Amino acid sequence: MVKIVPVIAIGILATNYAVNIGLMRKFDRLIHPISKRAKISAVSALSVVTCTFSSTAAYAMLSEELSAKRISEREVIATTLISSFPGILSHLFTYFLPVVIPILGLTTGVIYISLRGFVALAKTCLGFLLARMWLGENVVVTDVASAHHDAHEPSRDLAGDKSAWDKSVKTTYRMLKRIVPVMFVTLFLVALLMERGVFQEVSGIIEPVTDILGLESEIALVSATEILNTYSGLILAGNFLDESVLSAKGVLIALMLGNVISFSTRFAKHSLPLHVSLFGPTLGSKIVAINGAATLVVDIVIIIALVLM
């Protein structure tokens, strides 16, 4: 909690300030096509672009629009799915390139990154499809300039002025006052469930699954380690790959399987508190469930494809 809140605060503050000084107008060329093709509002499209830099700030933007009744719950769900691929791009230079490739090697690392990217891209395509089905032509705001001005941006004479900073700080403070208490309660409940071993029981199904699929026992070991700690799972997979204990295919299956088995823990520990605090328990849980289910389905399809190769 102590580590999460400052990150959220910085992300929201930076995005609000960028909007208030008009910096986000630089992305108009990206925002218009997304808004037009997905049938979502310009601010929702802006949140998709923002997700490339900070998913927390992007979701906070959607929360603010939803509270102001400028977008619908369906638009929020569709937009969070559309944001999946831009969201994974934000981890490209902070996790995938500096961590995954050195550990797994260039070939296996690139394949693994591509698989994770494919999962995110599939969710983005699903989001576009749902947005076009649900929203049609009923877009609340179609002009990005007016969206910025009406929803976030102060008058032109404040841009770059201290008032833009003050406005950003006040907006961030208001959002944190609403987000932090809910997040604290949710994190406490999740920690309580984890302490009782509710999520750990799920990992017990790994070995039966690998036995049924006729996979090496080391795959179960990598998957179980990844559930406890992603970095440890990667390092173990890299060691097995270097020592030829597992092939590249086995390593990919192990990491993807670990991702599938641990999805309930990850979504409960990381996604649920943030989404519930931003969108409320009902919509927040729905967003997490839909995103989690989509990820799970695509992951399973990839694992089956790898096993059959």
Describe this structure in words.
With 309 residues, the protein is an all-alpha fold. The protein has two domains: 23-152, no CATH class; 197-309, no CATH class. The protein has helices at 4-20, 28-38, 42-50, 55-67, 73-82, 84-89, 92-104, 106-135, 144-152, 162-195, 206-213, 217-228, 230-242, 248-261, 263-279, 281-308. Helix 5 packs antiparallel against helix 8 and helix 11 packs antiparallel against helix 12 (217-228).
The portion of residues forming beta strands comes to under 5%
Spans where pLDDT lies below 50 across 5 or more residues? 141-159
Number of separate strands: 0
* Gap between N and C termini: 43 Å
Radius of gyration: 21 Å
C-alpha geometry: globular
Mean pLDDT: 79
Helical fraction: over 70%
Q: What is the tally of helical segments?
A: 16
Briefly note the structural class of the backbone.
mainly alpha
